[in-house]
Amino acid sequence: MGSFQDLGLPEALLKAVEGLGFREPMPIQEQAIPALLGEPRDCVALAATGTGKTCAYGLPLLARIDGALAKPQALILAPTRELCLQIGEELARFAKFLPEVKVAACYGGAPIGQQIRRLERGAQVVAATPGRLCDLLRRGAVSLEEVRVCVLDEADEMLDMGFREELTFILDATPDPAALWLFSATMPPEVEAIARKYLSEPLEIQVGERNVAQANIAHHAYAVAERNRYGALRRVIDFVPEMYGLVFCRTRVDTQRLSEALMHDGVYAEALHGDLSQAQRDAVMRKFREKAVRILVATDVAARGLDVDDISHVIHYHLPDDPAVYTHRSGRTARAGKSGVSIVLFAPRDGAKVRLIERICGLRFERRAIPTADDVRQKHVFWLAEQIRGVDAGQVDPALRELLPAVAPLVAGLPPEEVLARVLQLRLGPLLEAYKDAQDINLAEKPSREERAAAFGPRQRILIHVGRLDGLREGAVVRLACEASGIQAADVGAIAIKREFAFFDVRAEVARRVLSALRGADFDGRPLNPELADPTEDLRQSRKGRPRGRPFRKGKGPGKPHRKGPRHG
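RE: above sequence
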């Protein structure tokens, strides 16, 4: 990988980049910047969320701005207010040494009059949400006639949020010479349709595979019983004391209830959902960015375009129905080349969704056990001890040291280990109490058919000549075998009941005894007529017709078929 100096950027932009501490371009930046600095052309760039796309299009976009022309020359569309604000702030930092270049962010939820006045004072770069830009266009408050570059940032999310009509209106109002740069994490059919309609022979840039999760994210999965879903979340959060995370829920009600439950249990959490006013939403995001809130609980819609640095964990309290949404969610961590963890809590009924996400997103979940109460207690004790050890001697407040001679007699006579134990008790008391009688809530996974067969040992299969038409059920098969031969229920293995007959397995050492005992037995007056069968045949694929050698029932006349339909009436 080269440096930003190798990408052909103007000196003013290089100076800004170096001042921000950027050293080596990320893959999407290394590919996109030189290409977009050349002749204006359409572009489709695919890269996972958090891989530096704003810088990839922002620097070449700013390099094209004519500072002497105080009209919008570049337009960036973003799905949410938060992303729009972040794009505006980041581009303003890149333009630090271009004093004639002004950046304006226009979004809903803020007074439109202030944004109109900002545009009137002159802004060459406009970052906007689709809805607010449409309002400005209809009022005649913004002109796109000088726009030479239009960027769709997170195009897939804008379409997911229902901005198709607004995007069509804006793109139709953009001058034909303008280059359209489409940046997206995934490429669903809706985005491809926009590309086909509005882009002409676009440059294609792709970092990684389409709809595939980032490689620097670890994917963990915890199997939980539905009744223990919240308890599992608590343990996963408590097991990582330094977690700074985002929890996704299905509904607004779920986010509110979950955040309140976490707060009640001593976890600093807030909810982010569509019922919040813009002022409430801003307050929540401010506390989360300042890390006054440790866990943000959000719906997918509320978290669209959310871009916060240093999120360590994304937890999927409820799984999304669309695998592409999993990619968006998990991409909120591991941003700017950092690593992160994406955690899935899934009940047995969610197993198919987990497998679908693995297949579509090209990843493999690491199945993990839910931390036990001992795991959580031990983790916190060691973590706190490491925090104490990590405090440099020079960081200790001198005023505190001055108090030590007066405090020391209060603990005189206590061994150092006892002092430490009591300090830890004072610090961790609420958590230790919460987990005092906690049980193991790991969900025992059912063994596979092969594992069950191996545990059962050598077996023999028996065929009996009664089936579903006779009202036979699995419980009756076990009862018949056990009562007739004196074996235990554990000696009976797999059972398959067909229309007019049934198979069941028994341990090989009792097979002859069972066969002999059933020869004179019947079920509701129907003789069983047991036979040994092939134990290697898959019971699910066994013969669906009448067993060979059974043209009629014993006691019926030759050629007289077994009656069909209900037995009585």
